[in-house]
């Protein structure tokens, strides 16, 4: 951008004596002035959609300014420093609402289409690993195992999340936080696994001391077919003794059927 600079001082010609050649205004002088003006105008930025070159500057707005005023790099840095929390989490205030898939609905099931949950629920996927933390309610996190082809993506405009795959709560896996406990189980009685985790039922059984009979205990899970858990045969004069175990799924009901059982003990990993 070039500013106009006058080449000829025309006012000074007025004080020159008559007959002085410099008193005359020459065409070349006028032409030079018009060329200077044309150059200055041509190199100025237009008011409408100007194209600027070099390093243009502008006044820096105050933090929090919300207008059509030009935002300088200094303003952007100051605004970010005022609003954003630091990497260690300090400086964060207010409530940051995130919409995502609710983990509660994902347990053992597959989402093939986009799901939108309430504010405050979200999924955090670890790239290259088969586990993820899913925020499943207002108070707790749960560690879930993602199996198969799984994708978690978030629409940055709406906050809605898409989860495709199968999620199993890793905190509810067999043996996690469980201990062996002695329990009482009766013949032909319905029991329910309400622990929120799979359990192992371990059985030891014996038959009459007279022997010569087969001792069996069968289990029916969720009214399904009977599955043999314990089977043993004793010789004459010797009681049949046998052991066995079976896994009871989360929420499943089960019924034990005894045949020739005199004594039995039951332990559950629960």
How are the elements arranged and paired?
Layout: H1 27-42, H2 73-83, E1 123-125, E2 131-135, E3 141-154, E4 161-169, E5 180-183, E6 190-192, E7 199-206, E8 214-221, E9 226-233, E10 241-248, E11 253-259, E12 263-269
Task: Please describe the structure with a list of short key phrases separated by commas or semicolons.
mainly beta; four-stranded antiparallel β-sheet; 270 residues; 10% helix; 12 strands
Describe the structure.
- By secondary structure, the protein is mainly beta.
- 10% of the residues lie in helices and 31% in strands.
- It contains two helices and twelve strands.
- The strands form three sheets. The protein has a four-stranded antiparallel β-sheet, with no helix packed on it. Strands 5-12-7-10 form a four-stranded antiparallel β-sheet, with no helix packed on it.
- The two termini are 82 Å apart.
Summarize the structure in short:
This protein has 2 helices and 12 strands.
Overall domain count: 4
Element order, helices and strands? HHEEEEEEEEEEEE
What's the CATH architecture name of the largest domain? Sandwich
**Strand portion:** 25-35%
